[in-house]
């Protein structure tokens, strides 16, 4: 992709122009049908009451023929074979038909999801069985491979590593669905390893089977499931988000990138775990939440953005990062204020999780969530007053870690763009997500357009200076 072009948008799901929004519009139409049918029934009853009025009946003797003709006309228009009552029944039947169609579509969607979950769960069990069966051959192959690797020169080893990495990156970029299904099979894999474990069986998957979320909860427990944290405000910080109102989605992601880079330079270890709070209005704030700092499988030390937190978030449990964010926001005076949460990777995971947490939303009015490269499907539902925009880059493995697609909801839009290469790590970079944000905004898609317009209307996007930016460091 040239520097002057924007990456293509591959798909947009959910939002105001998504499938679920269409279902809601169909149900709204059915409700209007039902209201209209009720109005017709009421009008039909009024006609009968008018004809049966005592004063009118007494006056019938003055002109019996005219009265009889009027009575026939009124009763025919209200209760006749083509009258209001019959028309009301037809309109009510139309409303029931619309509701039945929506129910059938939703049932079909649910069945498709459950079948997919069941297949992925079975895949996990098959993978484990096949691995155990082939273990002797794998051990022999591993020994031979190690011997061959040892015979290579350092330069040859480096070249082979590069070829393997490029091959894996190409596979992920060309077939992201395959990686997603493999990740979603984690429930079946762990369910086979730990049969009957109460935390996993029954799980929250199809037919009570464990899912990847259950497997993540188990991993968090094995690592100690630590939620202790400490929060400190840091002043005189160099760099970070600027005191200017983001004018676009791209500018918003670039502000997040500036927060993310606070601990990137030399002598910045003290800023590991930093988040920033930007005041963009008298009662309105943006909170910038960077992603994982410690990628080691078994974390240690005081870094709060580690793999344990990732397992906790995918498993849907409390985390030290989330608790620290809440404490920092309370310290910053955001209690009762309107906020937008903007997060990259793990930061987007925790942003979405907090927006769905009633304990969190009792303190903060989360109006918007914007995520970049974050797995968020484990959060099944956001409050109606919260609007989310999820940016995902094709070839980025991180958004696939939840093992499934994001829910299609009228106030939740997922944008998949293609700025991916064969370099897996590069695909997760915030520079690529800044380009993806610009491409999303330029696409003119209805769901994106409505989301961005709402952010402008609510005062989170605009022009000119903003209020101060505060920095907080969260550690274990």
Automatic annotation (TrEMBL):
GO terms assigned for molecular function: hydrolase activity, acting on ester bonds
Entries under Pfam families matching the protein: PGAP1
InterPro entries assigned: AB_hydrolase_fold, PGAP1-ab_dom-like
Domain annotation GPI inositol-deacylase PGAP1-like alpha/beta: ranges: 337-385
Protein name as it appears in the record: Unannotated protein
UniProt source species: freshwater metagenome
């Amino acid at each position: 992709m040239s520097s002057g072009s924007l990456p293509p948008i591959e798909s947009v799901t959910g939002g105001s122009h998504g499938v679920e929004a269409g279902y809601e519009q169909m149900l709204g139409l059915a409700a209007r049908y039902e209201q209209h049918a009720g109005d017709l029934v009421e009008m039909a009853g009024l006609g009968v009451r008018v004809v049966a009025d005592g004063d009118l009946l007494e006056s019938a003797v003055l002109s019996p023929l005219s009265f009889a003709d009027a009575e026939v006309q009124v009763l025919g228009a209200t209760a006749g074979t083509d009258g209001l009552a019959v028309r009301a029944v037809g309109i009510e039947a139309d409303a029931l038909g619309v509701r039945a169609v929506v129910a059938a579509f939703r049932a079909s969607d649910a069945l498709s999801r459950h079948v997919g979950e069941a297949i992925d769960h079975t895949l996990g069990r098959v993978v484990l069985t096949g691995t155990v069966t082939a273990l002797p051959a794998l051990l022999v192959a591993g020994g031979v491979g190690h011997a061959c690797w040892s015979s290579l020169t350092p330069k040859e080893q480096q070249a082979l590593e590069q070829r393997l990495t490029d091959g894996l990156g190409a596979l992920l970029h060309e077939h992201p669905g395959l990686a997603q299904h493999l990740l979603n099979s984690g429930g079946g894999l762990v369910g086979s390893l730990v049969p009957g474990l109460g935390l996993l069986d029954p799980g929250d998957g199809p037919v009570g089977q464990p899912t990847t979320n259950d497997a993540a909860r188990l991993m968090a427990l094995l690592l100690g499931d630590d939620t202790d944290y400490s929060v400190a405000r840091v002043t005189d910080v160099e760099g970070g988000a600027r005191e200017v109102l983001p004018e676009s989605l791209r500018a918003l992601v670039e502000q997040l990138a500036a927060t993310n880079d606070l601990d990137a330079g030399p002598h910045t270890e003290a800023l590991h775990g930093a988040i920033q709070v930007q005041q963009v209005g008298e009662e309105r704030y943006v909170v910038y939440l960077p992603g994982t700092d410690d990628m080691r499988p078994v974390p240690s030390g005081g870094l709060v953005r580690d793999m344990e937190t990732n397992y906790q978030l995918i498993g849907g449990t409390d985390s030290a990062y989330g608790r620290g964010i809440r404490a920092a926001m309370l310290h910053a005076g955001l209690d009762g204020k309107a906020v937008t949460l903007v997060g990259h990777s793990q930061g987007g995971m925790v942003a979405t999780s907090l927006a769905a947490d009633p304990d969190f939303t009792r303190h903060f009015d989360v109006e918007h969530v914007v995520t970049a490269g974050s797995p968020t499907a484990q959060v099944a539902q956001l409050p109606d007053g919260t609007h989310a925009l999820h940016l995902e880059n094709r070839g980025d493995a991180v958004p696939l870690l939840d093992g499934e697609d994001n829910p299609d909801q009228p106030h939740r839009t997922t944008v998949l763009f293609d700025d991916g290469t064969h370099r897996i790590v590069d695909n997760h970079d915030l520079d690529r997500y800044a380009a993806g944000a610009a491409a999303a905004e330029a696409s003119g898609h209805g769901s994106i357009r409505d989301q961005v317009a709402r952010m402008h209307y609510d005062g989170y996007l605009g022009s000119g200076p903003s209020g101060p930016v505060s920095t907080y460091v969260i550690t274990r």
